[in-house]
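Standup notes
- HV: blocked on the assembly model, inputs below
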Amino acid sequence: MTELISHHDVARQRAASPGPLAAEPAVAAASGRPPVVLVDPTAGRRRTTRRRRVPPEVRRFLGPALLFALWWALTGLDVVGDRALASPAAVFGAARELWRSGDLVDSLGASLYRVGAGVLFGVGIGLALAIVAGFFRAASDVVDSAMNFLRTIPVIALLPLIIVWIGIGESAKIFLITVGVAFPIYMNTYAAIRGVDARLVEAGQTFGLGRFGLVRSVIVPGAAPGFLVGLRWALGVAWLLLVFAEQVNTDSGLGYLLNSAQSWNRTDIIVLCLVVYGILGLVSDGLVRILERTLLSWRRGFDGT
Amino acid sequence: MAPRLRRNVSTGNPQRPANAAGADPAPGVGGGVAVLARADAEDAGGPAAAGLGAAVRVRGLRRAFGEHVVLDGLDLTIAPGEFVALLGRSGSGKSTLIRILGGFDDGVEGEVLAARRRSVVFQESRLLPWKRVLPNVTLGLSGRDIADRGRAALAEVGLAGRERSWPATLSGGEAQRVALARALVREPELLMLDEPFGALDALTRIRMHALLQQLCRRHQPAVLFVTHDVDEAILLADRVLVLTEGRFSRDVPVDVASPRRRTDPAFDRLRATLLAELGVDEIAEGTH
């Protein structure tokens, strides 16, 4: 009990009365009940002055800005040598150099194409499998067990097999990303379809929705949140796999640039590539956020405090 | 709108059949002959569905879940426009009966016929959270004037102007009124309500009672009102049924002068009878 009382309150109570604050001690004594100890449940959490709130956009920007400042400080104060970690200025210089030569644009284009195509195919396949398994009980027994078995195999372990099957060309890279993307999309969408409230489905039937109407008005919107969780996860996987895919016999793309920079001993370009990866990850996450905001505008979920 | 494919349950038919007094917006009791359809039938409106002067006809209905018999040889007839309240302890099979009449249960034995145009109001509003209020009301309907009909239904339940609200922003009472509008916009011949006000606070419930009475007077559907609240049943119904161990143990007409008041001795007598039937002794249990 006493742990709940803030120090401030305890001090005040001590000053006012010798013991803890008791409700009507006379009555308590008369009835033989132990006295009720009163505490302020809001103690310590009350806002005495109106706190000035930092806008969420600024707070979102704060994290990356801190990282940037740390980077600047580490390199500027010569804590790490220029060979180990290039300074922001050097990286900026590298960016300008590669932009002028067109290497940065070419690499970015090649990588974006691979990720884009892989995500497109992966989402298509994952979604199709989830819909088939989600709607047809017989299909779910077959598809879901197969997917759960395959899911446990690390995708990167497939790389040798993919090279044997379809070589080391562009399609192998896209294939790897497709496989990696399909699983999170499938797992989340399937679970979301199966998790749609049966009572809403029943209500839809009561009010005359046919099979197609149920899918369109109840199941697809009901499964959308789960799909978007899968999409976010899938995009992360896609960027990760891109790095692996681009280490196998490539002459374009960010991964190629990264590898080349290593052989040229250019840490500024290596760091530049890492920064570009980070920005691309942020941008794709932002795109899913926008998608969520438009598709799930009906939700008034808990946003955190 | 989506093409409306045939299902094993045909409920939401928005078109009024020609024999259902199409010109008269409020046919009197028995004025419109409800077209009965087998609630579990593949093709509602078959030869068995000819007009029988009833909105519900059930003969020898039996429903068992494994060993456990929930409904055991039930007979029930509800006349068009009649308001029947169904009382029973929890687990007595009230909701099972609604599910059967709604067409959600295919494990039944016996004859089950219910009006083809029927709608349900559930205990939870069951509004689709991703649709605004108006599309929720007109869910599953097609036609050119459905938006207007939906707006009119919303106005009837006192929610004009809330067409574009999200269900998540509605209070419990408002959500239930939207559910009522959604049921009534279909002009049902049979309206089933499964403890519709059970989750509402006492004040909202009083207002909902008045609203439901007013709407029933205007639309004249046959009503099957499932509740566990004896007062609510006496207040609203023409007839009260008590479901005990799979059978109707009581079937009493409510002969209380309207407007019905809880202080009326007839009200009190009926309440005592019904509570006793439900196994509650008011005085011994100290509810008074």
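- HV (later): unblocked. DSSP finds twelve helices and no strands in chain A. Chain A has a mean pLDDT of 83.
- Next: hand off to the docking folks.
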